[in-house]
Amino acid sequence: MRYRAFGRTGWQVSEIGYGMWGMGGWTGSNDEESLRALDRSIALGCNFFDTAWVYGDGKSEKLLGEARRQHRDATMIVATKIPPKNMKWPGKAEYPAGDVYPADHIRAYTEKSLANLGVDTIDLQQFHVWSDAWTTDEGWQRAVDDLKREQLVRAFGISVNRREPANVLRALGTGLIDSVQVVYNIFDQAPEDELFPYCRQHNIAIIARVPFDEGSLTGTLTPGSTWPTGDFRNVYFNGELLPPTLERVDRLKPLVPDGMDLPELALRFILEHPAVSTTIPGMRRPRHVERNLAASDGARLPPRLHEALRAHRWDRASTVA
User: Fold this and answer.
1) Domain-embedded: residue 184
2) Cβ contacts of 201 within 8 Å, gap of 6 or more
3) Is residue 315 assigned to a domain?
4) For residue 116, what is the enclosing H or E element?
5) Which element (helix H / strand E) includes 304?
6) Structural domain boundaries enclosing 99
7) Which tens digits make up the pLDDT trace of 72-127?
8) Residue 80 lies in a domain
């Protein structure tokens, strides 16, 4: 496992971290298997774990807390997220800041997460939605400053709306935000335009989420793919989006080098960018952990292949969080 600087925090984090949404109750998730997968990731050198209160109303946080208790001597950097008070995704400018992140709500959910995780301090607390229209609100600014001063959180970040990577730049200008979590993958390359240069200039960490485009970049989806009622992928891959997604994946497949599969190529593309501090594939099984973490070996993609992948950028409209 290779490690990278996490912005100005001074932390060295595994360049492939652990996304824990699926452990919160996705179809097919199993708590015992989830804990085995976490065990395996720690053994292989993963030290960055990203969860959220809304992932099972604290369930994912509690699983991570259990893993911490089982590995007390391991370095584990814990990141979680505060849900919006109005429970609406994505964040929109028309929602008043006081309806989304009032100061008492920020503190209350930080305290809930502290209890679920079984820690005295959260390494990275994050807003789970954002609109830069809220930047000047003094309530969230005061709450973030207080939580840091009281050492209830070590650093604070923002998880930005899908396909709105620049909708955070004003908040970064406050100096209160230490990291940005953003969708970045072979298809979603827009963060390279404004966000990545800004964060590199100001030493702000980047967490690249959704490295496999919610599953399309694993190469396992088919025209007949379906998901149980309530599964997020029913919204993401609606009837209109799935066919063009599969067409684009088919155009990618000939670029996969011998001895490599599409998920590995997807991870290696992300790791090529120096602005990325870590990427957080979702993993619920030990075999997924072993496959994904193996991509952290320092090997670079051939320059011509990297340029070919850049041509697969797909600027889709933002319809989901």
Assistant:
1) yes
2) none
3) no
4) helix 103-117
5) helix 303-310
6) 3-310
7) 999 999 999 999 999 999 999 999 999 999 999 999 999 999 999 999 999 999 99
8) yes
Q: How many domains does the chain have?
A: 1
Question: Which residues of the chain are modeled with pLDDT < 70?
Answer: 25-28, 318-319
Q: For residue 320, tell me if it sits in a domain.
A: no
pLDDT per position as a tens digit, 181-220:
999 999 999 999 999 999 999 999 999 999 999 999 999 9
Question: For residue 190, which amino acid is it?
Answer: A
Under 8 Å between Cβ of 254 and 4? no
Question: Strand runs (DSSP E) across 128-280, as ranges?
Answer: 153-159, 179-183, 205-209, 278-279
Instruction: Supply the CATH number for residue 40's domain.
Output: 3.20.20.100
The H or E element containing residue 100 is: helix 97-100
Question: How far is the C-alpha of 29 from the C-alpha of 212, rounded, in Å?
Answer: 18
Whole-model pTM: value is 0.97
Residue-by-residue DSSP string for 29-75: --HHHHHHHHHHHHHTT--EEE--TTTTTTHHHHHHHHHHHHTTTS-
Q: What are phi and psi of 94, to 5 degrees?
A: -75, -10
